[in-house]
Amino acid sequence: MACGVFRGKDSGATLQLVWNAIAQLPPEQRTKTIHVISTDTRVENPIVSAWVRQSLDRMRHAAQTQNLPIEPHLLQPIIKDTFWVNLIGKGYPAPRQKFRWCTERLKINPANRFIRDTVRKHGETILVLGTRKAESTKRAATMAKHAQKRLRDRLSPNASLPNSLIYTPIEDWRNDEVWIYLNQYPNPWGHSNTDLFTMYRGATADNECPMVIDTSTPSCGDSRFGCWVCTMVDQDKSMAAMIQNDDEKEWMEPLLAIRNELDIEDDRDRRDFRRLSGGVQIFERRQDNGTTQPEPIPGPYTKQWREHWLRRVLETQTQLRQTAPPQMRDITLIDLEELHAIRQIWLEEKHEFEDSLPRIYAESTGEAFPFPDGETARLLGTEEWQVLEEICPDAMHLELMAKLLDTERKYRTKGKRIGIFEDLENCFKTSSRTEAEAIQQAQDRYALKGAIASGDLQTVRQLTLNHAQPNDKPTTWGDAKFSKKS
Hints:
- By secondary structure, the protein is of the alpha/beta class.
- It has 17 helices and 10 strands.
């Protein structure tokens, strides 16, 4: 059983080689299914996404016509793992090198799930990849490492998936050799390689693909297509080049604007001072003068910014459906299933019973929000939230009251209210102190650990006395136990 990963020029060339090889076999020897998989992260460059979908459709029809055991599959991440559910719903900040939460959820997990299912069904599988050593120095080093455990030429064990082998037929090809092959040999499933070449050329800054005469000549196709929201790179050069080189692709400028708005160096003013769990975590931030200062690690986007990103995406989606070329006017930046998941997180996990998502949807799209079937009226809603806003003196009091009321609501219909006191206590732990008080307590706890580690008993005594309770009983403060008699 073989699985081939299909996406761009390298995987396209690899699939052509496999397709042509299988086509030369007698029909009675074509006994094993070849699954062609491509992952749609739901935030793909829309031009590339459309090209892949069209290619897979033609591939499916051509395989049936040519009597080949080739089955294409378009994989997607599960809803809880999608980009917008995590960023807008949970408040995850835009991905960075030190918090690269997107790749595994959006790309790796869907493919691995499919491969594991295939292994369970058939016992083993061979994963055919278009990876090449010439792609980067890091890729070459990784491939060299795996080559040490090879079973035979270009066939290596898969370190992460048992009973799965990796086959890399074009690992030694140069970039120009890929294009020479694609331009000289027609696509066997009827999709134009010229269109692919044009797409890559349009994503190159100078819009040129020179004739390659030696290894020093730059080749077309160095562009890498990825998610249009990607903040793991300094800038989305491929989309920017597409817009620059082709007037018909200027409609994508609003997408680039959202991506650039997400990608700012310091976004602490957009994020909560607490982590997603509600606690404050301290780290040593290096200052301009070379010293370090204990500061809280920024947490998820605040309610204001989560609502802002939702509004930006919905407004842009509405705009593109009116201004994009006719073949792209069915574009979906965030689908209804994701919106329902985001709304559920805001209501159940964030305790934001104001239920602002339907209102934002209506304001941004001009359409009524399609509520899930069978949904009943909620005990608390917008009117109750507005009352809280009027009587609460600040944001922290509003948050605490909302959490307490919503926690009580969740237990209201239960026959046994086991766990309610723990949940209510957690509301006070995470939301009963001002930002300054919570940060100061976390910094003191951080200093206490350092003092204990260094044996500074005077600092330990002072910090424990500062946070001791009025009674004489030992009290837990963070990870340290103390009392006034300490």
